[in-house]
Amino acid sequence: MTQVLSINPATGDATPTGVEESSPADVAAVDRQLRDLQFNPDRHLTEPLSEDGRNWIRAKRGAIAGSVDTHRQRAVRCQFIRQCNQALQPFVEDERTGLTAVRSEIWERARSNQVARNREFAFVLHSAERLRRLFGETMTGRWGAADEGGGISASRQPQKTPA
Q1: Residues 6+ apart with CB under 8 A from 50
Q2: Residue 85 lies in a domain
Q3: Is residue 23 part of a domain?
Q4: Residue 88 and residue 56: Cα distance in Å, rounded?
Q5: Can you tell me whether residue 5 is helix, strand or coil?
Q6: 21: left (phi over 0), alpha (psi -120 to 50) or beta
Q7: How many whole angstroms separate alpha carbon 12 and alpha carbon 7?
Q8: What sign has the CA pseudo-torsion 8, 13, 16, 22?
Q9: What's the CA angle centered on 96, arms 95 and 100, to 5 degrees?
Q10: Is the pLDDT higher at 71 or at 163?
Q11: Which tens digits make up the pLDDT trace of 47-67?
């Protein structure tokens, strides 16, 4: 995939094209998945599952189907469902770790996008160091390493690709 910088002449914004967009809404979606792992771990479990895991799932389903006529019954049921969810947490720990990593990546991309698209400061007002850090991967992916002055050395000029 070819990656280039797109410069908006009206605003002076420079953003890499072909870079995945991320927003706080994407972080919120992952947060909902993490919440679901906490309160509904049984929905995320797949076979093969240990007998202990199956027993906790059966116990939780039994509690959900149980009687809720009095306040006392509802309170006991709620506490037991929480206990079942807590007991099922080790079975979804790998998925939680993966989602936490995805959340961090999305948040970092959203933060970078916010800086890159900031209309208060045109890209020429950002420090060269900051621009290299934000766009370094894009530049390296397209042309290879930049020279020490921040430009592209003659030996690293883009290659023409056959059509």
Answers
A1: 91
A2: yes
A3: yes
A4: 7
A5: strand
A6: beta
A7: 6
A8: negative
A9: 120
A10: 71
A11: 888 899 999 999 999 999 988
The pair of three-digit structure tokens given for residue 152, joined into one six-digit string: 């592209």
| Residue among 96, 99, 102, 95 nearest 46 (CA) | 95
Hey, what are 68's tokens? 């809720």
Q: How many domains does the chain have?
A: 1
User: Residues 30-39: pLDDT tens digits?
Assistant: 999 999 999 9
| Structural domain contains residue 133 | no
Encoding tokens for residue 148? 């020490």
- In a domain, residue 142? The reply is no
What is the residue range of 49's domain? 5-126
CA–CA separation, 137 vs 148, rounded Å? 16
Dig out the tokens for 22 from the structure: 């991320």
